[in-house]
């Protein structure tokens, strides 16, 4: 089996027409790779186009405020990627004269750039023969070559990296790496791949031994924690409300939200109202408390399941540090809060 040539030929015939593939400049390649971590191309593409329009160069991004970067990122999730993106832009612009490192080893020194991203940029932008290893690569190689190693263990990465490196044509590193990613995304998909049309079906160990659904092997499962969030939309007598910035640790750090009460279970109005009253303090006259969503909004993260209620608390006085809705809409929010705002305030 001539794995590499078959794969590259498939890629050249089937690859999607994507804007970051029209250039080898490291800036758009880097931007696309960061965005597509844990994000499908269909979801990431509009964000990529908006970012390129807002920040045509790495210097433009570096000179933008972090809140603008976070606002444009809103909805892509894993917001540490956006903060690292901005930090890397400043690193490249202010410490490296606007020029990305031109090697895998140099790219690894950038904030938020790990093995996979560094390998992708190094091969695509500079032709360096270093293989990418991600979920798509695990899946393709595990199935085609029948590898039973548990991909949840750190030592397994070396097995796949060495195999990928041995298969990579040194003079076609960019095509090989992109072909691996594209083949895993379009053909060798996680569930119910169409093996009947696969270019490797005559040689694929998983297909020929009935193990397609079992490979790659991943034994370790991350425990999911349930959390119960109660957001308080305070409405003063001017119709203004309050938002706060989350701290520097935990989920969504650095983004904005309504005042939050976290409880051990999803509480009723009779249970939440005293907590809201205590939160507002004795000097504020609480008039009404209304639950704005009849059922909790369920928001799933990689390791947490959030049960979210939105409570409106009206007071009969003007409060300090309150904002009107147009001002609030300019802040970067977690997507679940952004969606609530869009649904309740036109």
UniProtKB/TrEMBL annotation:
<keyword id="KW-0004">4Fe-4S</keyword>
<dbReference type="GO" id="GO:0006284">
    <property type="term" value="P:base-excision repair"/>
</dbReference>
<keyword id="KW-0227">DNA damage</keyword>
<dbReference type="InterPro" id="IPR023170">
    <property type="entry name" value="HhH_base_excis_C"/>
</dbReference>
<keyword id="KW-0326">Glycosidase</keyword>
<keyword id="KW-0234">DNA repair</keyword>
<feature type="domain" description="HhH-GPD">
    <location>
        <begin position="35"/>
        <end position="186"/>
    </location>
</feature>
<dbReference type="GO" id="GO:0046872">
    <property type="term" value="F:metal ion binding"/>
</dbReference>
<keyword id="KW-0411">Iron-sulfur</keyword>
<keyword id="KW-0408">Iron</keyword>
<keyword id="KW-0378">Hydrolase</keyword>
<dbReference type="InterPro" id="IPR003265">
    <property type="entry name" value="HhH-GPD_domain"/>
</dbReference>
<dbReference type="InterPro" id="IPR005760">
    <property type="entry name" value="A/G_AdeGlyc_MutY"/>
</dbReference>
<dbReference type="GO" id="GO:0034039">
    <property type="term" value="F:8-oxo-7,8-dihydroguanine DNA N-glycosylase activity"/>
</dbReference>
<dbReference type="InterPro" id="IPR044298">
    <property type="entry name" value="MIG/MutY"/>
</dbReference>
<comment type="function">
    <text>Adenine glycosylase active on G-A mispairs. MutY also corrects error-prone DNA synthesis past GO lesions which are due to the oxidatively damaged form of guanine: 7,8-dihydro-8-oxoguanine (8-oxo-dGTP).</text>
</comment>
<dbReference type="InterPro" id="IPR015797">
    <property type="entry name" value="NUDIX_hydrolase-like_dom_sf"/>
</dbReference>
<comment type="similarity">
    <text>Belongs to the Nth/MutY family.</text>
</comment>
<keyword id="KW-0479">Metal-binding</keyword>
<protein>
    <recommendedName>
        <fullName>Adenine DNA glycosylase</fullName>
        <ecNumber>3.2.2.31</ecNumber>
    </recommendedName>
</protein>
<dbReference type="GO" id="GO:0032357">
    <property type="term" value="F:oxidized purine DNA binding"/>
</dbReference>
<dbReference type="GO" id="GO:0000701">
    <property type="term" value="F:purine-specific mismatch base pair DNA N-glycosylase activity"/>
</dbReference>
<dbReference type="GO" id="GO:0051539">
    <property type="term" value="F:4 iron, 4 sulfur cluster binding"/>
</dbReference>
<dbReference type="Pfam" id="PF00730">
    <property type="entry name" value="HhH-GPD"/>
</dbReference>
<dbReference type="InterPro" id="IPR011257">
    <property type="entry name" value="DNA_glycosylase"/>
</dbReference>
<dbReference type="GO" id="GO:0006298">
    <property type="term" value="P:mismatch repair"/>
</dbReference>
<dbReference type="Pfam" id="PF14815">
    <property type="entry name" value="NUDIX_4"/>
</dbReference>
<dbReference type="InterPro" id="IPR029119">
    <property type="entry name" value="MutY_C"/>
</dbReference>
<dbReference type="GO" id="GO:0035485">
    <property type="term" value="F:adenine/guanine mispair binding"/>
</dbReference>
């Amino acid at each position: 089996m001539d794995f590499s040539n078959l794969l590259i030929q498939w890629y050249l015939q089937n690859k999607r027409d994507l804007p970051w593939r029209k250039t080898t400049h490291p800036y758009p390649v880097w931007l696309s790779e960061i965005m597509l971590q844990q994000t499908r191309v269909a979801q990431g593409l509009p964000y990529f186009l908006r970012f390129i329009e807002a920040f045509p160069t790495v210097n433009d991004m570096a000179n933008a405020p972090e809140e603008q970067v976070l606002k444009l990122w809103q909805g892509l999730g894993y917001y540490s990627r956006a903060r690292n993106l901005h930090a890397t832009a400043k690193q490249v612009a202010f410490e490296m004269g606007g020029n990305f490192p031109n090697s895998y080893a140099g790219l690894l020194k950038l904030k938020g750039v790990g093995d996979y991203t560094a390998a992708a940029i190094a091969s695509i932008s500079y032709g360096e023969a270093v293989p990418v290893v991600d979920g798509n690569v695990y899946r393709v190689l595990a199935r085609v070559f029948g590898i039973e190693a548990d991909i949840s263990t750190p030592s397994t990465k070396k097995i796949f990296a060495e195999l990928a490196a041995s298969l990579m044509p040194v003079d076609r590193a960019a095509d090989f790496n992109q072909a691996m990613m594209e083949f895993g995304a379009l053909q060798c998909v996680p569930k119910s791949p169409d093996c009947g049309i696969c270019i490797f079906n005559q040689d694929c160990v998983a297909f020929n031994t009935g193990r397609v659904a079992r490979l790659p092997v991943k034994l370790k499962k991350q425990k999911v924690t349930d959390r119960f969030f109660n957001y308080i939309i305070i409405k003063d007598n001017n119709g203004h409300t309050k938002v706060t910035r989350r701290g520097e640790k935990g989920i969504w750090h650095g983004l904005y939200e309504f005042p939050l009460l976290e409880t051990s279970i999803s509480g009723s109005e009779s249970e939440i109202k005293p907590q809201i009253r205590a939160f507002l303090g004795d000097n504020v006259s609480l008039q009404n408390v209304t639950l704005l969503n009849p059922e909790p909004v369920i928001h799933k993260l990689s390791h947490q399941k959030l049960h979210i209620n939105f409570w409106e608390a009206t007071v009969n006085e003007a409060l300090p540090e309150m904002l009107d809705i147009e001002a609030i809409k300019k802040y970067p929010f977690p997507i679940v809060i952004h969606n609530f705002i869009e649904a309740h305030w036109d």
